[in-house]
Amino acid sequence: MFFFAVIMALYFTSLNSGSNGNCYYVGTKTDAVLIDVGLSCRETEKRMQKLGLSMKTVKAIFVSHEHGDHIKGVSTLANKYSLPVYITAKTAKYGPRLISHISKIFTANKPVAIGDLLINPFLKSHDAADPHSFTISHKGVTIGVFTDIGKVCDELIRHFKLCHAVFLEANYDAAMLENGKYPLHLKNRIRGGEGHLSNKEALDLFTTHRSPFLSHLLLSHLSKENNSPEMVEALFNAHANGVKITVASRYQSSGVFSVSNDNAGDIPAIIQKPVQMGLFD
Ligand SMILES: [Zn+2]
Ligand SMILES: [Zn+2]
Prior knowledge:
The chain is α/β, with parallel strands linked by helices. It has helices at about 40-50, 70, 75-80, 90-95, 155-160, 175-180, 185-190, 200-210, 230-235, and strands at about 10-15, 25, 30-35, 60, 85, 105, 110-115, 115-125, 130-140, 140-145, 165-170, 215-220, 245, 255-260. About 50% of the residues are buried.
């Protein structure tokens, strides 16, 4: 069984993270949002159910950008549960086919209230039409969802410093990418300013700008080809200083974590033992 142990907390999980699909859940006991739905509707439902999370709690979907690994299941899930989909006008042009009455336009730096949550979108550097990162806040507790980022900009640093927990992209090891089998144009796309964050760039952000109250770091959107979960986890653990480091998997959910204002850093993760889903190779 699955119990929420902490009142007034934010709960969060990665349902999947990587180029094969991204879906991040953040919410209180009553209200939650999904940041991107890059899994199929069915798989999203299945993984939430396995974690004891109810779709009834989900009040909205936010779309970070139109790449397939972030929007695959958006339309079906939104239509099935009549969920509003928050998206920018430019992203909507290229993005998921939505029934217009459920799509709502957001703009950078204009926070959106969803139940007892406040979602703040801000621009990021990535090769999409209008890509955004998000922070999700509730009663002074803030969680960041920062993936698909070509470079660390001042906005990212400003928001990173406010977070109690962060999904942070650590996409590739520079040497593995350089020596790997990807064609040069793809290597340059990934490591260019509109691609993805390297382990080193993510580590520098973490060690230089983390807040004293940061308690959880979920390393996200790892490349299958150009990274190693064990290696990147060890790299960050060497600098963790009490922050719980977890790799968000590209094969299964991360389990549910929680953080609250009272005792950020002390709350044990509420984790259901992850089960290999065997969906992707
Ligand atoms: Zn992506
Ligand atoms: Zn992308």
